[in-house]
Amino acid sequence: MRYYASLPLSVKVKLPHGIEYDQPTGLFINNEFVPSISGKTFSVISPSTEEEITHVYEAVSEDVDAAVDAAEKAFKNSGWATADPSQRVSGLLKLADLVEEHAEVLASIESLDNGKSLMNARGDIALSAAYYRSCAGWCDKIDGRNINTGSTHLSYTKREPIGVCGQIIPWNFPQLMLSWKLGPALATGNTVVLKTAESTPLSALYLAKLVKEAGIPAGVVNIISGFGKTAGEAIAIHPRIRKVAFTGSTATGRHIMKRAAESNLKKVTLELGGKSPNIVFNDCNVKNAVQNLIVSIFYNSGEVCCAGSRIYCQSGIYDELLSEFKTAIEAVKIGDPFNEATFQGSQTSQQQLDKILGYIEKGKAEGATLVAGGERFGTKGFFIKPTVFGNVTEDMGVVKEEIFGPVVTITKFETVDEVIEKANDSEYGLAAGVHTEDINKAVDVSNRLHAGTVWVNTYSDFHTSVPFGGFNQSGFGREMGTEALDNYTQVKAVRIKISPKSA
Amino acid sequence: MSLSVQVKLPDGSTYTQPTGLFINNEFVKSIKGEKFESICPATEEPIAAVYRAYEEDVDVAVKAAREAYNTVWKETGGVQRGKLLFKLAELMEKHADELAGIEAHDSGKPKATNAIFDVEESANCMRYFGGWADKVTGKSIPLGKDKFAYTLHEPYGVCGQIIPWNYPLAMAAWKLGPALAAGNCVVLKTSEITPLSMLWLANLIKEAGFPPGVVNILSGFGKDAGARLASHEGVDKIAFTGSTATGQVIQQLASKNMKAVTLECGGKSALVIFDDADLDQAAKWAAIGIMSNQGQICTATSRIYIQDGAYDKFLQAFKAHVEEEYTSKQGCPFNDTHVVGPQISQPQYEKILSYIEIGKKEGAKLLSGGKTPASLTKGYFIEPTIFADISPDMRIANEEIFGPVVACGRFKTYEEGLKYANQTQYGLGSAVFTQDIAKAHRFASDLEAGMVWINSSNDSDIHVPFGGVKMSGVGRELGEYGLTIYTQAKAVHVNMGSKL
To answer: Which residues cross the membrane (chain B) (predicted)?
Structure first.
């Protein structure tokens, strides 16, 4: 890391399509951008060009302390938790409107920093705004229950905020993951310290400006850029953070849970990895199934936790489907994220590129057949061609382990029972896809799959009111839907004795 | 073609008052072409003449609503419905001053101390229900391997809504908000006494982007337009706020096609003060409870029962407070210092005065008010009026007066206080003042009322359900309950393999 003693707190960044904007570089604490206490900064690379965009200030544990101080004061004093919830309604509604107003800039920053196509980025921003708006509607509806326990008592529950929540988000959907975390935490009256991924800190810092403009009080939202081992660790072990929410790899999630337990037993919710099965039955609509397969593994360059990275295709349709799939893959436009026709952008970093290429080699070494792709695309930028492995066996690394790139395996199967067994033979359980025109089969198979989300005749098809999360080692807790509010509230039961007075 | 007139308000400003019936996002003449006048209760002068909807116009509006439901609104998801409601809330806030002015002029509510707050609440109500629109969920019910079931919380379709004159905008918001959030289309009939503000709001409904036919607003009278709406076979639900007598008629008319019915009717709510109450606070809240809105509140706590030990002290504080904060601040609604305006109409004015005479004849003691204020002979003004020493069988202690007239009496014990509080045919609101928490909650539990205020009165909130028991009505508005009551559950049973 470079010590950049005088990095300005805002730098002008020119986007490839001409828009120029002011990129904040500081840590967003108490509604202000400040340098890190040490003055440390780190470099931010554009993965589609491999060029440096800017530096941003790097938070380490002392900066996390400052952010927690701000969040704690805001929780106690700002009224965010205790005042009329209409303040939260108005703040989140305004934030949603501002995100829509700034949609093009936000999408462009996202494409620049993450490498995803502008097409994908615009979709992310639209979903984020919709989610803030949906959460706004929840703020004044966090009801408890009144429980009839007989005439001697008044018994009721309240759903109270937890306090200062630490949130650690990944680099694959920087804005969207930001909204899934901030939305429910703020709606329920918590204050947050959120660390972005070190590969993609930029769009969140831009959004921080909008948080302030939306009228959300100082200290309620604090956004810091930094690394897992330092800033992330500091959040996981912090004695005054009462809850940590993490989205990322299963390995890191396990580590965070340990640290949370060892430190102060802070509450934990985790959205982790997946190796989601995508099951295509003989009686599917082939054209639709192929389109859904493309989306499920090549959307966002395959850097999606719920990517359908194992295709199971019933034998009767296998040849036809594979042929259609290959044709569709050839039509996938990969390249410059700022080209309006591009569907698949770059992977997010050198590290990811290397890891995915490594898995491709592993697949070959394990004896799988390369049916499509299998190599880098171009020489500049971290692009990988859409890749398909056939003739795989269930024990291969490429079938069991999360690759997190545009690489999918395809396996033939005969019967429903067989495919369900194979699909469930995983330590993960995030999502699954089922493609069939037989509705009873669809429901029956959905019932039997061990996954937090089952998509039927669609994939990666989100709605702000529908919960998302994992079984098994894909995590616990749900995001979006009314269930997300449970992650950020704790139940207090009040029991008042109201026996008659003797007088 | 815009059907409108220019109206000049007492503060000198002018505005364009739509006069047509609002159907399919357009203002249209009624089929008969007949108009009726809306009178300003502070001056007894006509403000504007608006088109009067008769039965045939109701038919047109219902048809428009049904068409909109079948072709557009049924397919409009909750996220979009919510967005439209948020937009409407925003527009209402933007035009709050104009709306408050129209409301004050047409209904007699003082603009700065009453009408403006109604507008604020109405906007908040739209926003609150906008937040529910994408959160209407049923259940999924596991039933074993061979079957599962789920429920859809579906809108009714076309809802008729009939609102009163005491809170024209707010009553419309309480009805429109949840109905639209739940996915219904609406035909709303305003009170013939206060048709103006909702016609002006119709412009904002269109501007917010609601598709044509989703909201239709008719000015008209109960006996024809209202009756037609209540009995219409093309209407799936009728929601009514008004008198108990009319509510009973509506309920009968609705039986024609078994449409769902919700009624918010009359009240004679009791405010009970125990010896240990904070009497100063009780006096202030009690005043709010009966002297706000010129006593024209369905939940007015119009009977006050004070425990023996506190009786004289309370009445002294209450009389002083009412005279200082209400009686001396009565007059033109456009004077910002005024808190009490005129009663809504000549018939109401006469009815209230007749009850005052009844109270005197029955032997209640007149502590304050009891007549038209000397300086306000034009307009339907009546002084805030306090009767004391009532006995529970008096007519002024049992019948709804709907004016600034309160009947105060004494009680000895908890049981006696409860008996008096529960004795009327009504059960809308109620209030209890005590510092003893156990007593407060027990009393709340024992009261026969849809709402109980502990240590306050008429402190309603859009997040909390509102409605009555007994002859005060059926169903609840506001809060999540208000949303649910605009949906009906459809159970879907899925046969997963049970073969005969």
So the answer is: none
Residues of chain B in contact with residue A440, where contact means CB-CB under 8 angstroms, are 496-497
Please report, for residues A310, A362, A472, the alpha-carbon distance to residue A401 in angstroms, rounded to integers and kept in the order given. Answer: 10, 11, 15
> Residue A395 belongs to a domain with what CATH number?
3.40.309.10
* Residue among B463, B478, B493, B495 with most chain A CBs within 10 A, to mutate: B463
pLDDT for A438 equals 94
Please count the CA atoms within 13 angstroms of the CA of B249 that sit on its side-chain side. Answer: 14
Distance from chain centroid for Cα A283 = 33
User: In chain A, how many domains are there?
Assistant: 2
Residue A379 and residue A304 share a domain: yes
Q: Choose among A407, A399, A401, A346: nearest CA to A372.
A: A407
Number of Cβ atoms within 10 Å of the Cβ of A17: 14
Q: Domain containing A52 — which CATH number?
A: 3.40.605.10
In one-letter notation, the amino acid at residue B56 is E
Residues A200, A127 share a domain:
yes
**Interchain pair B131, A497: CB under 8 A:** no
Rounded Cα gap, residues A84 and B445, in angstroms = 26
Contacts of A154 in chain B (CB under 8 A): 441, 445
Positive or negative: CA dihedral A268, A271, A273, A279: positive
* Least-confidence region, from A80-89, A179-188, B394-403: A80-89
What residues are paired with B154 via a beta bridge? B488
Which neighbouring-strand residues pair with A224? A195
In the residue annotation, B90 being an active-site residue is answered as no
Widest pairwise Cα distance in chain A: 90
ipTM of the complex: 0.88
**Residue A121 is part of which domain span?**
12-272+478-490
Q: What percent of chain A has pLDDT over 70?
A: 98
CB contact under 8 A, A137 and B130: yes
Instruction: Kindly report the average pLDDT of chain A as a whole number.
Output: 96
Whether residue B135 and residue A443 make contact (CB cut-off 8 A), yes or no, is no
CA distance B27 to A203: 47
Dump the DSSP string for A205-221. HHHHHHHHHTTPPTTTE
Please state, in angstroms and rounded to a whole number, the distance separating the CA atoms of residues A368 and A388.
10
Enclosing H/E stretch for A388: strand A387-390
Min Cα separation A224/chain B (Å): 30
Q: Is B137 on the interface with A (CB under 8 A)?
A: yes
Are residues A397 and A286 in contact, defined by beta-carbon separation less than 8 angstroms?
no
User: Minimal CA–CA distance to A308: which of A344, A275, A347, A271?
Assistant: A275
CA–CA gap between residue B331 and residue A275 (Å, rounded)? 74
Give yes or no for residue B1 having a pLDDT over 80. no
Give the number of other CB atoms < 10 A from CB of residue B400.
22
B217 neighbors B188 (Cβ within 8 angstroms): yes
Nearest chain A Cα distance for residue B133, angstroms: 9
Q: Which of B127, B494, B496 minimises the CB distance to A89?
A: B127
Query: How far is it, in rounded angstroms, from Cα A386 to Cα A373?
Result: 5
What pLDDT does residue B499 have? 86
Nearest by Cα to A61 from A247, A246, A193, A209? A193
Q: What structural domains does chain B harbor?
A: 4-265+475-488 (3.40.605.10), 270-461 (3.40.309.10)
d(C-alpha B102, C-alpha B60), whole Å: 27
d(CA A485, CA A203): 25
Tokens 């925003």 correspond to B90
Residue among A16, A221, A190, A141 at smallest CA distance from B130: A141
Strand partners, B489: B153
User: Does A483 share its domain with A392?
Assistant: no
Residue A168 is assigned to a structural domain of this protein:
yes
Question: Is residue A6 in a domain?
Answer: no
Write the pLDDT tens digit of every residue in B362-414: 999 999 999 999 999 899 999 999 999 999 999 999 999 999 999 999 999 99
